[in-house]
Amino acid sequence: MATGALIGVNKWTSYPGGFGGGVVIQEIPSLGNFPGTVLWVSSTTGSDNNHGTFKKPYATIVHALSMGNMVNRPNLGISTATIIVCMPGHVETVKTSGGLMFSTINNLNMGVDVYFCGGGLNRASIQFSSATTASMIVNAANVRLFSPLFINGSISAAGGPQAAGGVDALVSPIIVQANGFQMFNAEYYDSPAKATLVQVLTDASAYYMGIYGYRYIASTTGTQKTSGIKLVGAMDHVEIMNANISGDFTGAPVNNSSGALTNLVLDSLNLANLNATPTPALALVGTTQGVMANCLFGIASGAQFTSAHVLGIRLCYGYVIGTGGGTAITAAN
User: What residues contact 94, with CB distance under 8 A and at least 6 apart?
Assistant: First the structure.
């Protein structure tokens, strides 16, 4: 078995070119068999002057992305992907627009997977601060984030974990402008009285986007929020599953504000709009096509749980918050 001598790269198999897709056990990659680049990041023990190894991690995701495939395996003669492992306790602080950028200029030939390790107060996180325009922008294809924790502010142990500090009227901290973006088991925390207007914002380039497991912990005060996930542009094959989004939104927790979607899949969503003015919990362009199943839509008042749409529906219900009961949704109601 050959042994990797390149910076940031572990052992790999002697099978020609390694295992092309790597080896995955219970959704965790076996890094020793991964044929691409593996880079480690820790804001507590790392330095961007290090080599990006487990024992000598980088300090920031930003720097790891700047390395990208530059520390890849040129002897393989193929383009390979990148894995970035954020160690427990890592904090990626984002203070400006595009302060964390997943860009094609970073040699992300086949995409990048970022793993956020740890739990509770020690979970690796991305924290937005200082400016209302602070944001993470994705304009490289095939970026996947595993268990990311996003915070408007910083993590606090008080009654926690929960957020503290933060910026009121944070505009849109997660911006997706490329295809194939996926998030798994993500959480987003607002600090008290510090609202995020739109948590996830797309443009029409974000086709094949998937969000699989997402929870939003909203502030109860601060500037009124606009939308949780805002889908802008005519995209194909967007999937949102196992999401829990509740808050006072002028739009809707999930809002397809413009551009009809095709092959949209919504499954196991719990969306609640606390806006006292009758406002749907799901807003779609009327000609958006796809399916939704096993969803709950809560509204503060009125009787319109979703906007007009032509989705296929199975086992979806609407309810008025605080009144009990529910109404089976068989059309746009």
Answer: 100, 126, 127, 128, 129, 134, 135, 136, 173
Q: How far apart are CA 277 and CA 248, in angstroms?
A: 10
Q: What is the CATH number assigned to the segment(s) 24-328?
A: 2.160.20
Residue 273 has pLDDT above 70, yes or no: yes
- Provide the total of helices (H) and of strands (E) in the chain, helices listed first: 1, 27
Highest mean pLDDT (candidates 22-26, 100-104, 328-332): 100-104
Q: ∠ CA 173-233-115 to the nearest 5 degrees?
A: 40
Supply the pLDDT for residue 156: 73
Q: Where are the domains of the chain?
A: 24-328
Q: Is 185 left (phi over 0), alpha (psi -120 to 50) or beta?
A: left
Position with higher pLDDT, 210 vs 305 = 210
- Chain centroid, CA 178 distance in Å: 13
How distant, in Å, are the alpha carbons of 108, 183, 205, 213, 229 from that of 138? Answer: 12, 12, 10, 19, 15
Beta bridge partners of 255: 230, 283
Taking the C-alpha atoms of residue 79 and residue 34, their distance in angstroms, rounded to an integer, is: 13
Residue 61 three-state SS: helix
Residue range 198-218, pLDDT digits in tens: 999 999 999 999 999 999 998
Query: Hey, what amino acid is at 272?
Result: A
Q: With contact defined as beta carbons under 8 Å apart, do 108 and 140 qualify?
A: yes
> What is the structure's pLDDT at 155?
76
Structure confidence by residue, pLDDT tens digits, 45-92: 999 999 999 999 999 999 998 886 555 444 444 455 688 999 999 999
Cα angle for residues 297, 301, 305 (degrees, 5° grid): 30
Q: Which residues contact 23 (CB under 8 A, 6 or more apart)?
A: 29, 30, 33, 34
**DSSP string spanning 89-129?**
T-EEEE-STTSEEE-GGG--TT-EEEEE---GGGS-EEEE-
